[in-house]
UniProtKB/TrEMBL annotation:
Keyword presence, Phosphoprotein: yes
Residue spans crossing the bilayer: none
Official protein name in the record: Response regulatory domain-containing protein
Keyword terms, alphabetized: Phosphoprotein, TPR repeat
Signal peptide (residue range): none
Domain Response regulatory, residue spans: 44-161
Positions of post-translational 4-aspartylphosphate modification: D94
TPR repeats: 256-289
Region annotated Disordered, chain positions: 1-23
Gene Ontology biological process terms in this record: phosphorelay signal transduction system
Amino acid sequence: MEHARTAPALGREQSGVAPSRNSKARWSASCANDLPACDLAEMRILVLSTSHHHARTDRKLLLRLGAADVRHESSGVRAARQLVTGKADCVILDGRLDDMSGLEFVRLIRLHPRTALMPVVLASVENGRAAVLEALASGISGYLIRPYSMVGLARQIGRVLEQPARTIEEGMGVSREAFEEKMAEYEAPSAIEAPPEDRVAALLAEVDELLRVNALDAACEAVVPLARTSDPAVRAEAHVRLAEVHLRRANPGMRLDALAEAGSSFQDAGEFERAAECFAMLQALNPSAPGPDEQAARTALKRRDHAEAARIYSRMLNVREPEAVCRSISRACMFTSDPVTNARLLCTELGNLRGAEEAQAIYERVVGPPPKPAEEPVEREDRARGRLAEVLAVARYTVRAYRAMKHQPGEPAILQPGA
């Protein structure tokens, strides 16, 4: 038997901790009056997110609320190990982690007696009713919709900390053994051996039947093992069905992730038409966001790994229009220190993979055609010589007129221009 962490007192007046002058200076009196009382000085808060922007924003707001110990982690497995050893008192959770979703992380830590009642506030961009209800059913303590305000964060943390401390016993699905079994699934190698082909077909048919009757939880549980297999074709089919699950659950972010994984897996399997369909859906759903391959190519270019970037763009040319790939290359090179040189080196590597003619065409679309050689400036020189001759003629006439006036000061000098 273990005891859940005792929630600290909520009012600053009750706890005896006075706000610092710096924190008072940051906010006007009206804003400070809107903030609910919430003492975080003794709290150890763990921010879980794959987005560094979200993590920085969460940490900044928590520090302004008075928190002194705020840490960031992006891996659900590492975070779960930290929490069960008592290294945090509260969690601010994003919807996506490196190795699992935010809701999967909540279900995981709820299996351990030490973390079964730990306050977890989910900060998500999903604002649909179905997404909120699913998050609450997973065991979260509070829900924030990004972007949120300082007042909203303080209210959510204050609300979850107001819950009285309770005792949790092993049993009823809560045990260290269940936690370790689930952790072993996430800590195991991500790629497992695919079942036989007939077994895969039977499992996919079972998932399709579950989707037909709208049994989303059962369908998700049945298809997740297939999504972790080493066979890219099986993995792609599994992610297509996961995308359908997230569509019906009104989780657009997780649906985008599933479609991206499906497209990449279809590429690896050589099914370029299916991959093109997935990427077209991604582009239609989120036109401004780069795809996973495009993001990987940008990262490779920033590392000046032109061979890896060329390999990725060569794959993209199999499933996307050349004009779209050229725009992607142009955007990626634009954010490097030397865009023209990087474009030239990238197209050189593309020439090794797809031929010099195609690479040259891509280079001309990205950078522009090579400049034409300058013509001989014959006409310009002739024009300059004519002007110079006119200037010299005027100068000779002026000198001669001056000399004539000097020798005959009483008479006006009349000279012909050719004299």
